[in-house]
């Protein structure tokens, strides 16, 4: 597709369940980022990938959060044993390559609600 | 973490009015970016300012980067209902390529 695609657009889960969120970056973009947007906290960086290099996981809030990027394209963010405080919009972005001059293009996000 | 403070948090104005949104930090940034986000969508880049004192114009929007590269402002002239949205400033962290975002200014322009 022309833009960053995220699925599902909405996810409702029960506390304690695991969830997987998917991101399809723009074709040809080697860098992929995950952010979380919650009320009161704004947009927070979680993790980014660049090609086959080791990801920068410095923004992941706990070891319940993990992410993979298979084949340098699609990425999955997994949250294990979800908690109510995990409720937020999870945004994925991609850029042509890693570098501060590269524009990050965002998907529409996955709205996660943990009951 | 390099913090970005945005003000005001909320702004409700009538069509035709002017407004200014501020983005401030105690840290120096190599560049700052402004995004606009509409409900149910991701942020969309409006502009990047790089040089201290730089002024960029995008139609009715004027962006300024402070001389010391610690702050920026967004001025909208004759606001339109289509300007409604969440305005976010962001800068790159010192240690990597992730973006640090301010909490945003939510703008509502009523006809």
Concise account of the structure shown:
In chain A, a hairpin with a 5-residue loop joins strand 6 and strand 7 (75-79). Helix content of chain A is 0%, strand content 48%. Chain A has strands spanning 5-7, 10-13, 19-24, 31-38, 42-50, 65-69, 75-79, 88-95, 105-106, 110-114.
Descriptors:
heterodimer, A: 115 residues, mainly beta, six-stranded mixed β-sheet, four-stranded antiparallel β-sheet, 10 strands, 0% helix, B: 111 residues
Protein described:
The complex is a heterodimer of chains A (about 120) and B (about 110). Chain A is about 0% helix and about 50% strand. Chain A is built from no helices and 10 strands. In chain A, the strands form 2 sheets. In chain A, strands 2, 4, 5, 8, 9 and 10 form a 6-stranded mixed beta sheet that branches. Chain A has a 4-stranded antiparallel beta sheet with strand order 1-3-7-6, with no helix packed on it. Chain A starts with a strand and ends with a strand. The relative contact order of chain A is 0.32. In chain B, the strands form 2 sheets. In chain B, strands 2, 4, 5, 9, 10 and 11 form a 6-stranded mixed beta sheet that branches. In chain B, strands 1-3-8-7-6 form a 5-stranded antiparallel beta sheet, with no helix packed on it. Chain B is globular. The N and C termini of chain B lie far apart (about 40 Å). The interface between A and B is medium-sized, with 26 and 22 residues.
Protein topology:
The complex is a heterodimer of chains A (115) and B (111).
Chain A: E1 5-7, E2 10-13, E3 19-24, E4 31-38, E5 42-50, E6 65-69, E7 75-79, E8 88-95, E9 105-106, E10 110-114
Parallel strand pairs in A: 2-10
Antiparallel strand pairs in A: 1-3, 3-7, 4-5, 4-8, 6-7, 8-9, 8-10
Chain B: E1 5-7, E2 10-14, E3 19-24, E4 32-37, E5 44-49, E6 55-58, E7 61-65, E8 71-76, E9 85-92, E10 99-101, E11 105-110
């Amino acid at each position: 597709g022309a833009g960053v695609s995220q699925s599902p657009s909405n996810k409702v889960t029960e506390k304690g369940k695991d969830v997987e969120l998917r991101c399809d970056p723009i074709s040809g973009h080697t860098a992929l980022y995950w952010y979380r947007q919650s009320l009161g906290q704004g947009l927070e960086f979680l993790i980014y990938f660049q090609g086959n290099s080791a990801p920068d996981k410095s923004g992941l809030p706990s070891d319940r959060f993990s992410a993979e990027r298979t084949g340098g394209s699609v990425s999955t963010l997994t949250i294990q044993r979800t908690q109510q405080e995990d409720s937020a919009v999870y945004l994925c972005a991609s850029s042509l390559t890693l570098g501060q001059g590269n524009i990050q293009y965002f998907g529409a996000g996955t709205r996660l609600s943990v009951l | 973490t390099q913090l970005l403070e945005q003000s005001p948090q909320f702004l409700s104005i009538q069509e035709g009015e002017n407004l200014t949104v501020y983005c401030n930090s105690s840290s120096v940034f190599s560049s700052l970016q402004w995004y606009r986000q509409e409900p149910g969508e991701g942020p969309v880049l409006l502009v990047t300012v790089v040089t201290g004192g730089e002024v960029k114009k995008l139609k009715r929007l004027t962006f300024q980067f402070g001389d010391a590269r610690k702050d920026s402002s967004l001025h909208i002239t004759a606001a339109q209902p289509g300007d409604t949205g969440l305005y976010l400033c962001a800068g790159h962290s010192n240690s990597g390529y992730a973006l640090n975002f301010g909490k945003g200014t939510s703008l509502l322009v009523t006809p």
